[in-house]
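If you are new to this repository, start here. Below is one unmodified record pulled from the training split, so you can see the exact layout before writing a loader.
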Amino acid sequence: MRHRPHGVLLSNGPGDPAATGEYAIPMIRGLIDAEVPVFGICLGHQMLGLALGGQTRKMAQGHHGRQSSVKDLETGKVEIVSMNHGFTVDRESLPSGIKETHVSLFDGTNCGIKVENRAIFSVQYHPEASPGPMDSHYLFERFAAAAKTRI
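And here is the target side for that same chain:
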C-alpha cells in the first residue's frame, strides 16, 4: 500500500483457492478496506470471493476451453469466453452487498461478482483471451476508469 496503487488486478493461476489464499486473502481484504479498485480474473475471482466472505467449492466437472457462453446479468448480453477452472464461487455463500453479475449458460454456475457501490469486481473466465473476439473488453475499460479516479 505504500506504493499507493491506482488499482490491483488479481490474476489467474492454478490451484485450490482456499489453500492458495492463506496468504493472499488477508492482503486482498486490505485492498478492499483501503477502497482500492480491484479486478479479479479466474483464480483472482475465486480469491476475491473468499476475501469478501464467500465460499468456493470444487466442481464435479470444471470448465475448460474456448467458446463458453456466459450471461452478463446486468445487461442481458451473452459473451463468448475462454475458461479453465475446477472451482467455483458458491453464490449461496455470498454475503449481502455482493452481487452476482455473470453466470455460465452451460451449467448455471457463478461467473462474476461485484461489490455494490464500489470498484471491486471479478469474473471466473479469461477476458484477456478474447475468444469472442472482444466480448469482455469492457471489463478492462471499467477497471481502467476506476483506477484513474485514484490518480
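Two things worth knowing about this chain: The chain has a mean pLDDT of 92. DSSP finds three helices and seven strands in the chain.
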